[in-house]
Specification:
Elements (H helix, E strand, L loop, with lengths): L1 E2 L12 E5 L13 E12 L12 E7 L2 E5 L10 E10 L6 E7 L7 E8 L9 E7 L12 E11 L4 H19 L3 E11 L12 E7 L2 E4 L10 E10 L6 E8 L7 E9 L8 E7 L6 E10 L4 E4 L8 H10 L13 E11 L12 E7 L2 E4 L10 E10 L5 E8 L7 E9 L8 E7 L6 E14 L1 H7 L17 H30 L3 H16 L5 H18 L7 H15 L18 H22 L7 H32 L4 H20 L2 H18 L8 H8 L3 H7 L20
Antiparallel strand pairs: 1-2, 2-9, 3-6, 3-10, 4-5, 4-7, 7-8, 9-10, 11-14, 11-18, 12-13, 12-15, 15-16, 17-18, 19-23, 20-23, 20-27, 21-22, 21-24, 24-25, 26-27
Helix pairs in contact: 4-5, 4-8, 4-9, 6-10, 7-13
């Protein structure tokens, strides 16, 4: 290989080393109409560390004139990745350099910048393969060494009409971007238990939890306090992107309040030798620690997930649509219970987006999420009215899932900026209707600028959907860490207070019957009491629960809305958004302060005292020994905050079941109560209790690794709380944003 002097090409290049494959030089044509740039992305060396484990998940982007023209696949957990990917680009000018950027992929989070470099096309010799080494730099920290990339580059002048070639290249790049997002299978993992773990605390026990990682996907289990033989009984799924499998990295940690968690050991599972559609049991000894971890792993085929252009989608084909309806017909209700249905999302366009760049434009792209399934569109550069025209197809495992569509602005060398978001429960979707949805804030409590046009179709099996309602809800991999929030704590406090006031009012109403405050009401209550007690049978209990469901259904059918409380919740959220700063959680001064309840004053004073105590300790070096105690106070605050939310949510969910907030769930409750009434009426109670007890005692013997669940709590987890109802409510859209009218694009 012959090293070329950079001065011979008439330009000084920093951080680029070039070697040619021959001594021959070919003079370029005088005015070529187009250039073909052939690039082989070979490998990277000593790339930057961006993950906690001391590694990164790097991928590379190529940009020309601000537009992304190539994106490589992601190499997991490697600082010296080997790509060996080839791409052919057509460029019409050599004045724009090739901008190369490296990122660390983080699932569900913003990808971390790992360095960038420029390749100046004017410096390249024509029709000659050159080996190029790019030194990666961070423009904000140029002194940092971020490693190098190795490329092989060939620039060839072309002439003639290249529109067809450009179209072919664009289609190929779109296909590469599409395939990079699609998974080839599902890895179902059941975390059962652990034995004989190492004691990490002074009391001779530990508070263990487990972290899992497969490529960019991560999962964290719940913490089991004060035990060396924890029982988790948790199940979750990972997506399998590589044909040859991959490695699941597992670490066990001891939870410590106020300080860094203690490492207790690690292990891993190689998925490549595992057979599909079969459950594999693993007893994994922990390396660098003590004890054994018990897991169940099952590999299944790819789910119905796809990305296509608007002109190509399965549900628009009459024959394909009929086949899908047959697949989810009532006759196939007990075949593959986890395959509940399919949802197709057409992301058409957006209008009136927020300008996130200094130029008054944005570079928007759209992310579509359904539970832990996540796909995204391409980026439309310098446009506030982008058109994507993409179709996403997802497999539905839980009909109560919420479809989240988020619009971001792509930024060079920075995390993407949030532009807006909508959340749409699958059961609220009207099939085949193209609608304009007003974008909301991150918290989904208020509007932001812009609308997005979507057309969604859902096909599902109602029997499967009902049965899957009674199993544990799938947890999201990526969830925000809980933090103390004065706004959230006051909100949860007021929600619990409303539930308690409802019970107090109900008790007062019953007591008024005994006090004869209303003669007519007391006489009716007495007659009902005598009739019920004299004729009471156990089957009447579920029968009585049917009465409020029937009554509310009649009221709603007659046009009387029994759900005014949601407006109160919406006003509460809006007032708190106005009174409190979302970032530092400090109350804003305003006239609303004088109207707060005495209970809120007490809670605020308590939080303020903790806040000032924290500042005083942090500023006093002699008292930093109390920091651990303050961390413990913070943990208590988070526990109280979460407990209030859980109590309030269950109260609101019970209410929303009876007032038909989600008709599917209310009908399911009616079916369950009718079945319970019939069973109790015809089968003696002792037989029912005996069957229940035998099932409970024999469950562990029949399946030692079964995951216990409570069907009633699983049902209630699908009913939205009042906060979720407000978050999922659609905002009114300006009539000027019509699905059939398009605003003129405004590219810069």
């Amino acid at each position: 290989m012959l090293a070329l002097s950079l001065s011979s090409v008439g330009r000084s290049l920093t951080g680029i080393n070039i070697a040619g494959s021959s001594n021959a030089e070919t003079a370029p044509p005088a005015n070529p109409g187009m250039y073909q740039l052939d690039i082989t992305l070979k490998r990277g060396h000593n790339l930057a560390i961006r993950d906690r484990g001391g590694t990164s998940d790097p991928y590379v982007k190529f940009k020309i004139a601000g537009k992304e023209v190539f994106r490589s696949r992601t190499i997991n957990k490697n600082l010296n990745p080997v790509w060996d990917e080839r791409v052919s680009l057509l460029v019409d000018s050599l004045r724009e350099p090739l901008y190369v950027k490296v990122f660390d992929y983080d699932f569900g989070l913003q990808d971390d910048f790992m360095g960038s470099a420029y390749l100046y096309l004017e410096s390249l010799e024509h029709q000659r393969t050159l080996d190029v080494t790019l030194d990666l730099e961070d423009p904000q920290y140029p002194e940092h060494n971020l490693g190098t990339l190795e490329l092989a580059v060939t620039l060839s002048p072309k002439e003639g009409d290249f529109r067809e070639a450009q179209q072919h290249s664009s289609m190929r790049l779109s296909d590469v971007h599409r395939k990079a997002q699609l998974w080839r299978g599902i890895v179902s993992i059941s975390l059962i238990e652990a034995h004989d773990l190492q004691p990490m605390d002074a009391n001779g026990f530990s508070d263990p939890y487990v972290k899992f990682r497969l490529g960019h996907q991560k999962y964290k289990s719940k913490t089991i306090p004060k035990t060396l033989n924890p029982q988790w009984r948790e199940q979750f799924d990972f997506h399998l992107y590589e044909e040859q499998g991959g490695f699941i990295d597992i670490t066990v940690w001891d939870k410590d309040a106020g300080k860094k968690d203690d490492f207790m050991g690690r292990c891993s599972i190689d998925l490549s030798p595992l057979s599909k559609e079969h459950t594999h049991k693993f007893d994994l000894p922990l390396e660098e620690g003590e004890g054994m971890l018990v897991l169940l792993v099952t590999l299944t085929g790819a789910a119905a997930v796809s990305i296509s252009d608007l002109s190509v989608n399965i549900l628009d084909d009459t024959h394909e649509r009929h086949q899908i309806r047959q697949r989810y017909s009532v006759l196939r209700s007990f075949h593959n219970l986890k395959d509940v249905g399919v949802v197709q999302v057409k992301v058409i366009r957006s209008e009136g987006l927020m300008a996130a760049d200094v130029t008054g434009k944005s570079d928007p792209f759209c992310v579509v999420e359904l539970s832990n399934d996540r796909l995204q569109t391409h980026t439309v550069y310098k446009n506030l009215n982008p058109e994507w025209n993409k179709v996403f197809t997802f497999n539905v495992k839980d009909i109560h899932s919420v479809l989240e569509v988020t619009v971001y602005d792509e930024d060079r060398d920075r995390s993407a900026d949030f532009l807006g978001k909508v959340a749409i429960p699958l059961l609220n979707i009207q099939n085949g209707e193209r609608k304009a949805y007003a974008l909301k804030s991150k918290e989904l409590t208020g509007p932001t600028k812009g609308v997005i046009f979507l057309e969604i179709d859902v096909i599902f099996n109602a029997v499967k959907a009902g049965l899957m309602t009674l199993i544990p809800k799938e947890q999201k991999y990526i969830e925000d860490e809980p933090r103390v929030s004065k706004q959230l704590l006051l909100q949860n406090f007021n929600r619990v207070r409303r539930c308690i006031l409802f019970l107090i009012n109900a008790g007062c109403y019953i007591n008024s019957c005994f006090e004869w405050d209303s003669t007519q009401r007391s006489i009716c209550s007495f007659l009902v009491f005598v009739l019920v007690v004299w004729n009471f049978e156990l089957y009447m209990i579920p029968l009585v629960l049917l009465l409020p469901l029937a009554w509310n259904y009649i009221l709603i059918s007659s046009g009387k809305d029994t759900r005014q409380d949601f407006q109160a919740m919406e006003d509460l959220l809006e007032n708190e958004d106005e009174d409190y700063d979302k970032d530092d959680k400090v109350p804003r001064p305003g006239p609303s302060e004088d109207r707060r309840l005495p209970e809120s004053h007490i809670l605020e004073d308590m939080l303020a005292s903790w806040h000032f105590e924290w500042i005083r300790v942090m500023l006093d070096p002699e008292r930093k020994g109390f920091i651990n105690k303050l961390y413990a106070i913070q943990d208590v605050c988070i526990s109280v905050q979460n407990a209030l939310d859980e109590v309030a949510s269950y109260g609101e969910r019970i209410k929303n079941t009876f007032n038909w907030t989600v008709p599917f769930l209310s009908w399911l409750a009616i079916v369950a109560l009718c079945v319970a009434t019939v069973l109790i009426y015809y089968i003696p109670l002792r037989y029912i209790v005996l069957a229940w007890g035998v099932n409970k005692f024999s469950k562990k013997l029949r399946d030692p690794y079964t995951i216990d669940n409570n069907e009633l709590l699983d049902f209630l987890s699908r009913v939205p709380s009042d906060v979720q109802v407000v978050q999922y409510r659609e905002l009114k859209v300006d009539p000027s944003h019509s699905p059939n009218k398009r605003k003129k694009n405004n590219p810069g």
